[in-house]
What does this fold into?
Amino acid sequence: MSYFPCTVAVAGFSSNPEVSFVVANKSATWWLYADWVNSNSGASLSVSGGPLLLSQLKMKADILTFGFADSFAASAADAYMSPVTSPHGGLVMPTIFAFNLHVCRNGTIPLELSLRTDAPAIAAFTFDKVTWYPITEVQTQIQWPN
Amino acid sequence: MSSSSSQTNYITNEFCFMIVGSSLANMGSTLQVSLFADISQGPAFYFQALDNHMHTGLDGTGLTLYGGDTNGTALSTPVTLLDLRSRTIKLTFNKPTNAGNKPIPDFNFNLFFWADSTLVQPGTPVYLGLNVDGSVECRYGWTHGDAPGKLQDNVSTMLSWGKNPQ
It folds into this structure.
């Protein structure tokens, strides 16, 4: 069993979306984790970001959903830059709403994530806050860290 | 819901932390709330997001923040910080966004408590600490969405594991 701290992030939206990150987990190999077992080095679950306000949060083993408060919807597009591509090809999320948690792996199947949202948004996933994997509605396969 | 396992040696139970909406009417621009497992007075327990230690949480409930009813309606008192650790939860709220005379819905936080089943059984006293930087009414319950018990501000409240107050 391996646990990895990770971050999911959203940016670049102009309304107040409800965003979900969905783990493909048919074999129960990967799941989201926010528990004490692996939290000795810090928060097992934390939310950070700029002026955005969380209006909803739901978390299960295979899905993480959050929404944003109406009052900041109008300013979100201005306040939040879109992700840009780094010289090394990685996706950079310069100003983000970030959700820090863990994923747990049992086995060797790669992590697959997809985005579900009711409004356009740019989303990404990272293990190290350096290499960002863009997450779209198409299942995205992510390499686990060594 | 309560479950235990001899293999993993734990006991887990639903828990609901609630801030009564009407008590938020006079809060300042922000409100900071901290919950902690007070192990100086009783056995250790832990805050968790899922109802099952690995494998089978896929179909179970998990951690939820919501306002009003259990349908998960949006919070009128949005959260700017959530920090969940094994024995401490910190929350920071902004002032309610409700306008006019609409009542402010209760804020609900559903999660799970876990403990070593050799130390904690249903009815075992555990102590939950609460620190708030304002005057708000905080409640608790051992079923998601239901908080019949009252938590005292800035002291630890003794709870009977899995049992709501009469």
